[in-house]
Design a protein that fits this description.
The chain is 0% helix and 63% strand. It has strands spanning 2-8, 13-18, 22-34, 45-56, 60-72, 78-91, 102-111, 120-125, 131-137. The mean pLDDT is 89.
Length: 140
């Protein structure tokens, strides 16, 4: 079983702290839940808080990304949350946008996402459109 959460890089609200060796960014965005056949879920509100730490080496940047997603009902009652941790390296670049097509991470989840706890997340990046897709997979 799987489901997907989507958002767009171009819609991030950001707080960036750039240093000589380490850059840190806190990015937020609304998130849409897709790939689930349940009309009740259409009325939910999802919010992503993405914490990125980039350690700058000579030719390589080392990233740790922490995805925190909370889903709430119209009356602001939290009905599910998930936390995904990823780590990867890529050639050095300016800014925080990845040059990779996808990365994987481990899921910690509660509420409506609890079936994915200890599962795997794959985050796909389309840097031409800015689209981001986080797919959740149960642990087998």
């Amino acid at each position: 079983m799987s489901c997907q959460l989507t958002w767009n890089y171009n819609n991030y609200k950001s707080n960036v702290n750039e240093g000589e060796e380490i850059d840190v960014a806190i990015l937020t965005s609304d998130v849409a839940l897709t790939g689930v056949d349940n009309n009740a879920l259409n009325d939910l509100f999802g919010q992503l808080v993405l914490d990125i730490t980039k350690t700058k080496m000579e030719d390589i940047d080392v990233y740790q990304e922490n995805y925190n997603i909370i889903y709430s009902s119209q009356d602001s009652k939290v009905i599910g949350s998930l936390y995904v941790v990823t780590g990867y390296q890529q050639p050095a670049t300016d800014g925080f946008q990845t040059t990779l097509k996808n990365v994987s991470g481990t899921i910690s989840a509660q509420g409506i996402f609890s079936m994915f706890n200890d599962g795997t997340a794959i985050i796909q990046y389309n840097n031409e459109t800015g689209r981001r897709c986080l797919s959740l997979y149960v642990r087998k």
